[in-house]
Write a structure and sequence with these properties.
heterotrimer, A alpha+beta, B alpha+beta, C alpha/beta, B: alpha+beta, 5-stranded mixed sheet, 11 strands, C: alpha/beta, 5-stranded parallel sheet, 5 strands, 19% strand
């Protein structure tokens, strides 16, 4: 209750009460009264109050000034003042309720203390007997802590206690285990105290942020609703270009609703800003909405959304004031104005900065920037390389460290954000994505710009913040917090995923969910566990079924078993269905991307999507984002022509991109089509020939030629992009899709456009497979790859010298690979005429695979073989069969590669001998 | 999870000079591995061969729905292959939440070996690569070689396994 | 005026080295050597035998902890203070377990650095860590 006394001692509540009543009686026409209130407010501003409260007071002062100057309608002004006072009173009551340490503890000191204690606790915890060094360290840090200003008496008491035990330990007056246990107990208490101190500290003075007020309304459902509103708003924003007052009014209504929400959440400045924007928006009705306005609205949506998601995630919810300012101040005049507005934002270099140090910094910093840049450029082609990640991380880390001494707050923040992305990647939480690298490269450029500007200023002088600063920062910080928003990389941390899936949930169910309250949120890992276990149930069930059928044959038993089978199957379907989500949010993201890209590229792009209700495995949604982003980028950057060129070709100036989703015979199909220049077959062939990819004797079909764009060597060659009409890195698209057991098809008509079709299995957990055997070994071949199976006749077989064996099938010569040779299995059938041949097709390439026999067709649950076998080729996973045994699932592409790497030829020769 | 770990710590601290080891045989030699790393011992079951792996990787098994690898320790240690017998079994070890099976000739007992009785590995007279031996435990007249099972089955080793498989072409 | 004390500053950023050097000079320590990475630091330590080392952690070639372990292996009495960014708690704990005497977080104030260094230097003796193995950290 110390805090309440402090408030009381300062007479704060009484003063606030007085102020409130003054405002209540205010006559806006009387300037003296306004002055009196302003005077009172000044008194408050002198006081040592938490930052949010001070902000509210400045707000009151501004409002008063505006009323006096006649800038603000007295009535509206009055309303505003009352709101501010209410917020202040609310805050005060809350503060009074919480007890704890002085609220004026600066963040740095708190952090320092936490660090000291944190290190101390961990060292003490991990202390082992016979290590006097660690005991000495602990004693030293206890002494240090005791001298810190903010250590509360109760904390001090605990620390003293620990010191005593440490003394005993050192003098061996107490058994090590016992002493250690006592220390651990005391540490637990210390940590509790620290946690509560931290909480109080956060409430007392969040640094430059809008504080989160705990409020009963802060229920998840409520936030979900807000998120849904924002999502719907985005849809409307995206069609704003097509004009129409209706959409504008709808957006305004959404903003109204969101504003109310912000009010309830106690996020007053944001609510005020939104109200203003809404007014502007409504007054613009009838006029054409500028493109820039659309951008601002989208930015608004992202900022608010991000804030809400964090609030929902129980994270330390902070709303960047600058972001609000950016929305507000610049909404009216669109993006250009934003840049100009920011150009005016200047930072002063502190006068306490030593000029020599500053120049040292400016000499050395470019080296770090250069280091970061070169590492990042290499990372683009080599995203997992730990050394490069480290190098980039270290560069930003050094920038951050050095800039922090010069109080170059923006540089520190920028470097910190970059460091965040890199350290996540470095620590293996997720691979770094192309878009993150782009963001980071943006940060590098920005850093250069900063250095340049700082160089031309000096201590005590100002430099202007580069215009893209906030955008870059926002992108990176967002990238770290919620990468799914960006379109996803792989290996998502579960926690983040859980938040995201909750959000997705909210999106998918959009309007329907609200009010009905029929949904619960489930952690994704629980769902995955359920599916795994149901998978096991299915297996065990079929094992039991076989046993019982073999043993009994009782009619009653078999009808019960049939019932059990039915229930089990339904259960499995249900479980799998639970992790199906629609493509809606993916498609929306793509719509957004296409829009952003078209703005950047000066192309007119019309993006249309359909079939967004198509459902797909949740685990695939995240994975499929990246390839789609890639394809859309390619279409905009390379596929679509510039308007003049389009006109010359007799097409509309606006280019079109279509994205479609649908189910087709047990697969999910995502199709992306553009009406651009199409692929240039000749250019691709030339390029491929020059790289030695082509063989003279083989005539390529159109599909074969187009498939070449996925060839790694071809697509990473920069100079080919413009002529081929496709960009770089398509091999990545293909490999991602194939990892998901799917495939990509290309078709293109020169001058008319290109269509890419991605075909994916419904779920990642289960595939349709053909069980085959070679000798005693059983394997599963994914049905999606099987074109046909046949027993070959003598006349179909041939051996191409140096090329290995082949099968002639309807005038087509297909290479024949023997699984027993590739996998080195002894005792298999050696004569292809006695064995069985599967024709497998992947990416337009075909080959025949020889196995002993086919066992049957069945659905199998895919299990990973784990990292032990990450290097195994030709195998993509394991499946547990009805017998309880594991069968390996074949990876047709891997088999093809294995065979082509010389084995095929060598084995072919061998095969011929084996036959003759 | 955390609590569990700490408990284990406490137990170990409590008997700080003695560790428990599961001992098993490969041929005539007796080996031990830290009991804390042992998840369970299962009898021999069907092992699915994984192609193009060195012969000491016996393959994978289904352990209640999980697919886990099995390493034949005899072959790993360069001993001659043996026919599987009634006594052949698989020790499932837990290495940082990753499960692995180790195929051994026979499991014998759980032993307490005081730290003091574990000596450094001599450079001679051991048929096993000394990299995998943590030390030699002496129990009366017997000598138990304490294995660094983590070292044998680390991912580095595993990647080596995989690349060996390729080199074998 | 402290007795003639020799200090080795290890940091890959010149700025940081200068900064620490200035602070040390102001504190009256004027026998200062510098190294820009872990490998250099070890050589320099062997050659000059400084009384104290300030060690950055994140460096190219060989990081601070690896260098620290090697220095301690060479001279168990070595006194090392690690310099690290705020919030990297785990790294600090590792460093201390590997034998560092204390740590300072960036951005640091002059007083804090001098106070820490003074304390470490006046500590009766640097304890020898019982069983230090170089391999643990390399």
């Amino acid at each position: 209750m110390k805090k309440s006394e402090r408030w009381k001692d300062g007479g704060y509540p009484t003063q606030l009460e007085e102020l409130a009543s003054l405002i209540a009686q205010m006559e806006p026409e009387e300037p003296e009264m306004l002055l009196e209130i302003a005077g009172k407010v000044d008194d408050f501003l002198q006081q040592d109050l938490p930052k949010p409260s001070l902000q509210s007071f400045s707000h009151i002062k501004d409002t008063l000034a505006r009323i006096e100057a006649g800038d603000l309608d007295p009535k509206a002004g009055y309303h505003k003042l009352v709101q501010c006072i209410e917020a202040l009173q609310y805050r005060m009551e809350k503060e009074t309720l919480s007890s704890g340490l002085p609220p004026v503890l600066s963040s740095d000191e708190m952090e320092y203390m936490e660090m000291l204690i944190g290190v101390f606790c961990e060292v003490a915890r991990e202390m082992e007997e016979g290590d006097p060094n660690l005991i000495a360290y602990c004693k030293r840090s206890v002494r240090k802590l005791e001298h810190l200003r903010h250590v509360t008496p109760e904390l001090l008491e605990r620390l003293k206690g620990i010191e005593l035990i440490l003394d005993y330990l050192e003098d061996k007056k107490v058994e090590f285990e016992e002493g250690h246990r006592l220390i651990l107990d005391a540490l637990a208490q210390v940590e509790e105290i620290i946690v509560s101190m931290r909480e109080n500290h956060l409430q007392a003075s969040p640094p430059a942020v809008e504080e989160r007020q705990s409020n009963e309304l802060l229920e998840e459902a409520f936030i979900d609703e807000q998120v849904t509103l924002l999502e719907k708003m985005e849809e409307d924003i995206l069609v704003l270009d097509e004009g129409g007052d209706e959409a504008v009014e709808r957006i305004a209504t959404y903003i109204d609703a969101i504003t109310d929400g912000c009010d309830s959440l106690g996020v007053i400045p944001l609510a005020e800003t939104l109200r203003e924007i809404c007014r502007e928006l409504r007054s613009s009705s009838g006029g054409k909405i500028a493109k820039e306005t659309v951008g601002s609205l989208l930015f608004l949506k992202d900022t608010v959304m991000d804030f809400l998601i964090r609030l929902d995630g129980e994270e330390e919810a902070v709303l960047d004031e600058r972001a609000i300012k950016r929305i507000a101040g610049n909404f009216r005049s669109g993006m250009e104005e934003i840049d100009r507005g920011e150009r005016a934002e200047a930072r002063m270099i502190s006068t306490s900065v030593d000029i020599e140090e500053l120049s040292d910094f400016l000499t050395e910093a470019p080296e770090f920037v250069q280091g970061a840049e070169s590492a990042l450029m290499q990372l683009e082609n080599n995203p997992g390389n730990p050394e490069l990640l480290n190098e980039a991380f270290r560069s930003f880390h050094n920038l951050k460290g050095t800039a922090s001494f010069l109080e170059l707050e923006d540089v520190v923040r920028l470097a910190h954000a970059a460091e965040g992305i890199l350290s996540e990647a470095r620590d293996g939480l997720r691979a770094i994505s192309q878009s993150q690298v782009t963001l980071l490269l943006g940060a590098v450029d920005l850093m250069r710009e900063f250095l340049e500007r700082i160089r031309s200023a000096g201590p005590g002088q100002s430099y202007v913040i580069p215009s893209s600063y906030y955008y870059s920062l926002w992108g990176m910080e967002r990238g770290v917090r919620n990468q799914s928003m960006e379109g996803g990389t792989h290996g998502v941390e579960e926690a983040a995923e859980s938040v995201w899936s909750r959000q997705t949930c909210a999106l998918e169910q959009a309007g329907e969910s609200i009010g009905r309250g029929g949904y619960i949120k489930v952690a994704t890992e629980k769902l995955d566990d359920l599916i795994d276990n149901v998978g096991e149930l299915v297996i065990v069930h079929s094992m039991v079924q076989q046993e019982i059928e073999a043993e009994t044959g009782e009619p009653q038993a078999s009808s019960n078993i049939a019932l059990l089978s039915k229930i089990t199957r339904e259960l499995q379907e249900l479980a799998l269905g639970m992790r199906m989500v629609s493509l809606k949010s993916t498609f929306r993201k793509m719509a957004r991307l296409a829009r952003d890209l078209s703005v950047q590229s000066d192309l007119e792009v019309d993006f249309t999507y359909s079939g967004e209700d198509t459902e797909i495995d949740r685990n695939m949604v995240d994975e499929i984002n990246q390839p789609l982003i890639h394809l859309i980028r390619n279409a905009v950057d390379h596929g679509l022509e510039i308007p003049t060129e389009r006109r010359r070709a007799g097409k509309s100036e606006t280019g079109h991109i279509w994205l479609r989703g649908y189910h087709d015979s047990g697969s999910v199909v995502i199709e992306m089509e553009d009406d651009g220049r199409g692929l240039d077959k000749e250019a691709i062939l030339d390029r491929a020939a020059s790289m030695g990819l082509l063989r003279d004797d083989v005539k390529l079909s159109d599909e074969d030629v187009y498939d070449l764009i996925f060839h790694e060597g071809l697509t990473t060659a920069c100079d080919v992009t413009d002529i081929s009409g496709m960009g770089v890195g398509l091999d990545v698209v293909q490999s991602t899709v194939e990892r998901l057991m799917g495939r990509v098809e290309v078709s293109s008509v020169p001058g008319q456009g290109t269509k890419l079709t991605i075909r994916l299995p419904l779920t990642l957990a289960i595939i349709d497979g053909m069980e085959v055997k070679v000798c005693e070994e059983h394997y599963v071949v994914p049905s999606i790859a099987i074109q046909e199976s046949l027993s070959v006749k003598d006349e179909q077989l041939s051996t191409v010298t140096g090329e290995g064996e082949a099968v002639l099938l309807r005038d087509e010569i297909i290479p024949l690979y023997r699984l027993h040779n590739l996998f080195r299995i002894d005792g298999a059938k050696l004569d292809p005429r006695e064995a069985l041949v599967l024709v497998l097709g992947m990416n337009g390439k075909k080959f025949a695979l020889m196995v002993d026999d086919i066992v049957g067709q069945q659905q199998v649950v895919i299990k990973s073989l784990g990292e032990t076998f990450s290097g195994v080729r030709g195998v993509s996973g394991g499946a547990i069969m009805g017998t309880g045994r594991v069968s390996l699932i074949l990876d047709p592409l891997g088999i093809m590669q294995l065979a082509q790497e010389g084995d095929g030829r060598e084995m072919g020769e061998k095969g011929r001998k084996q036959r003759t | 999870m955390v609590a569990e770990r700490e408990n284990i710590e406490v137990v170990r601290v409590g008997e700080r000079n003695t560790n428990k080891f599961l001992t098993f045989n490969l041929g005539e030699e007796e080996y031990g591995l830290e009991i804390l790393k042992v998840r369970e011992i299962i009898g021999l079951m069907h092992i699915t061969r994984v192609p193009r792996m060195p012969d000491f990787v016996r393959g994978v098994i289904n352990l209640r729905g999980k697919v886990i690898p099995v390493i034949d320790l005899r072959l790993k240690f360069g001993m001659s292959a043996n026919e599987d017998t009634e006594e052949t079994c698989i020790i499932v070890v837990d290495l940082d939440d990753k499960l692995m099976g180790a195929l051994v000739d026979r499991v014998s007992e759980v032993l307490d070996i005081p730290d003091d009785d574990i000596s450094e590995t001599p450079d001679f007279g051991v048929s096993v690569d000394t990299r995998f031996i943590q030390g030699m435990g002496r129990i009366e007249e017997r000598v138990v070689m304490v294995l660094d099972i983590g070292g044998i089955l680390t991912s580095e080793e595993i990647y080596r396994i995989a690349s060996l498989g390729e080199e074998g072409d | 005026m402290p007795p003639k004390i020799k200090i080795l500053i290890v940091d890959d950023a010149m700025f940081m080295r200068n900064r620490i050097k200035q602070i040390l000079l102001q504190g009256g320590y004027d026998d200062i050597i510098e190294s820009a990475n872990g490998k250099e630091a070890i050589e320099s330590y062997k050659k000059h035998r400084p009384d104290l080392v300030t060690m950055d952690i994140i460096m190219p070639d060989m990081n601070g902890i690896a260098a620290l372990v090697r220095i301690k292996a060479f001279d168990p009495q070595a006194k090392v203070v690690v310099i690290t960014a705020m919030g990297q708690r785990r790294i600090v704990v590792d460093a201390i377990k590997a034998g560092a005497m204390d740590f300072v977080t960036k951005p640091f104030k002059k007083e804090k650095v001098l106070e820490t260094i003074h304390q470490v230097l006046t500590e009766p003796e640097a304890w020898q860590k019982a069983d230090l193995t170089v391999d643990d950290w390399t």
